Recover the amino acids of this structure.
């Protein structure tokens, strides 16, 4: 099996974020591997371990896990972390002309790399913690004309039959879905507990191959990506107002009444 996992470097969720020229200022903020992509990597590792006699990810098992990431040069930090969890190799699409790309352009680039790589399965997180659009997996499936199994709570794979099944919880119950390879899957965060990279994994990751590609390498015209090609533009952004001090209700026997009055005033009751 050839499995691709799409991983994205995002600004640290806890960092204070600022806008610059209508775009999120990513350069001046700490960046991390998108938390939700760790579940996708873990699931790929578990699929390989469950389906290889050696019980280890890697070429020897006949299965490979390739990370695919589109992002600036510093995205290699997130890619190395993902490699240290146990993936085999990575493809990093890095080109200044990609700056400001929207989800349509991102999916165009990722889909091209995926189709060039002849993968059996692509696994994504459900969303990135910065843009939070949750659209890339569906866009990839559409662009590739592959089956789309999104928001999976469990995944099982039968490589001999080239089939993948998922279960997805909805407000109406559990949906069980099955598809033939190739397919795009997105996994929710309840699916597993991502492993911490071991010391051995961190050392091994330093030697793993990260292939960097620019737009020319993947044959995508620059006019199709970047902020000029984006279908949406951020016109304005304002910081959320600072929280004002709360109202302290002193209870000298009248606390309950004061509380009710406050809630009525706020039209909460
Ligand atoms: C006008 C505009 C300008 C923008 N400018 C920029 C910009 O300059 N720089 C920038 O980084 N973003 C920019 N964005 C945001 C960018 O378009 C989205 O981050 C990106 O298209 C993916 O959407 P998402 O992050 O919401 O992905 P989601 O659909 O929420 O992500 C789901 C999953 O898809 C995969 N995935 C998503 N993005 C990537 C990726 N890049 N590489 C690999 N896997 C991925 C991951 O597995 C992730 O868990 C811009 C958006 C708009 C609308």
């Amino acid at each position: 099996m050839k499995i691709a996992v799409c991983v994205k470097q995002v600004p640290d969720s806890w960092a204070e974020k600022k806008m610059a020229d209508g775009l999120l200022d990513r350069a001046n903020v700490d960046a991390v591997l998108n938390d939700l992509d760790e579940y996708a990597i873990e699931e790929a590792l578990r699929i390989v371990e469950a389906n290889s006699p050696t019980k280890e990810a890697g070429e020897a098992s006949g299965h490979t896990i390739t990370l695919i990431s589109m992002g600036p040069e510093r995205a290699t930090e997130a890619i190395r972390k993902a490699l240290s969890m146990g993936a085999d190799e990575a493809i990093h699409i890095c080109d200044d002309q990609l700056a400001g790309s929207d989800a349509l352009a991102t999916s165009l680039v990722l889909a091209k790399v995926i189709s060039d790589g002849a993968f059996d399965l692509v696994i994504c997180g459900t969303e990135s913690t910065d843009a939070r659009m949750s659209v890339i997996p569906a866009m990839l499936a559409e662009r590739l004309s592959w089956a789309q199994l999104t928001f999976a709570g469990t995944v099982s794979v039968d490589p001999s039959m080239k089939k993948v099944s998922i279960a997805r919880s909805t407000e109406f119950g559990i949906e069980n879905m099955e598809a033939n390879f190739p397919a795009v899957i997105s996994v929710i965060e309840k699916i597993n507990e991502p492993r911490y990279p071991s010391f051995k994994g961190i050392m091994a990751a330093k030697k793993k191959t990260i292939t960097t590609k620019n737009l020319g390498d993947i044959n995508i015209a620059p006019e199709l990506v970047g902020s000029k090609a984006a279908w949406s533009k951020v016109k304005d952004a304002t910081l959320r107002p600072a929280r004002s001090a709360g109202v302290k209700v002193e209870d000298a026997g009248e606390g309950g009444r004061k509380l009710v009055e406050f809630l009525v005033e706020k039209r909460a009751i």
